[in-house]
Amino acid sequence: MTATNISRVALVVFAGLLLAVPVVMPMFVSPFWIDIIAEILIWSLLAASVNLLLGYVGLLSFGQALFFGVGMYGAALSVIHWGADFWGGLAVGIVAAMLMAAIAGSVAVRLTWHYFAIITVVFSLILYFAAMSAKPITGGDDGISFSTPKVFSFGDLELSLADQSVQYYTILLVVAACYGLFGLIVRSPLGVRFMAVRENDRRAALVGINVYLTRYLAFVLAGGLAGASGALFAFFGRYASASYMFYHVSGEAVVWAIVGGAGSLLGPLFGTGLLIIFRELISTVWEHYLFVVGAITVLVVMFAPRGLAGAWSDFMKVIGRNKPAETPTSNPGLSKPAADTKLGG
């Protein structure tokens, strides 16, 4: 079996495990862990939004919490004031986040390197303090809560997020769709433009690529991913708070993306999963577990600069390189050259 086939089989097994979580996990551990896996899926979308900018366009953003918060409040307020269902609230959250990204990105993507990182922090802080001040609308640091919306209804059949399995599979469906769309984008001509700008923006401009527009589109799309994450998180907790718009949330997403592997499609999912599971296991016995998280991040940057996904890719290359070459099966009938034959005698 080739390295590519091994990776494909591993991906299929991983997808199967995710599908089996609500059925199999309660047999071995507390159902609480179903919610932890759902939370990992949600937060991985925020890390994926960082990955789109950092891994594919070369822009380090510490402002993704802004779009996470806008998506969160978009979903929550649409349920409270408009009576939206899950899908309506999700759509409002994503659209609101993309609109905010379109506004902020028109200024932010004119900058690069540390200037870009600084301006994203500034935008995040401005909206954070605005949300904290607008307490009658946002609830400020206390947040706002809302009732559980329905996911699907037909006749007497109604599916609600109040059911843990329905909630898990709904989150899994949305997250899988987002990663699928992400994969299509990075493999499209637009994705090639992203990577060309990442590698050398001047050369990209020389061959006719509009660098500003390319970065702007990436920024808006990343805002949409962060908004989807925020909307899902609001539905997950039936709660929205301005505290999630602070830039330290963006910092966590950056760490998840780097540990998982910036520039890889599923790297943020693996990085988020590793560190959140680690948090849940260690935080109950040691309150200073963040020191270890920091140490893990430093070690990954030093010894696996491309993250967990990059380490897996390198491991697959080693397997492919060490695989013995296949020798043709010996066939006695072909071991000697065939005798010359002549037509007609």
TrEMBL record:
Family matches, as InterPro entries: ABC_transp_permease (IPR001851), LivM-like (IPR043428)
Membrane protein topology class: Multi-pass membrane protein
Keyword GTP-binding: no
Superkingdom assignment: Bacteria
Compartment(s): Cell membrane
Pfam families from the UniProt entry: BPD_transp_2
Keywords: Cell membrane, Membrane, Transmembrane, Transmembrane helix
Membrane-spanning residues: 12-34, 40-59, 66-84, 90-109, 116-134, 166-186, 207-233, 253-277, 289-308
Residue segments, region Disordered: 323-345
Chief location of this protein within or outside the cell: membrane
PANTHER family: ABC TRANSPORTER ATP-BINDING PROTEIN, HIGH-AFFINITY BRANCHED-CHAIN AMINO ACID TRANSPORT SYSTEM PERMEASE
Name of this chain's protein: Amino acid/amide ABC transporter membrane protein 2, HAAT family (TC 3.A.1.4.-)
Organism (species): Filomicrobium insigne
Species lineage: Bacteria, Pseudomonadati, Pseudomonadota, Alphaproteobacteria, Hyphomicrobiales
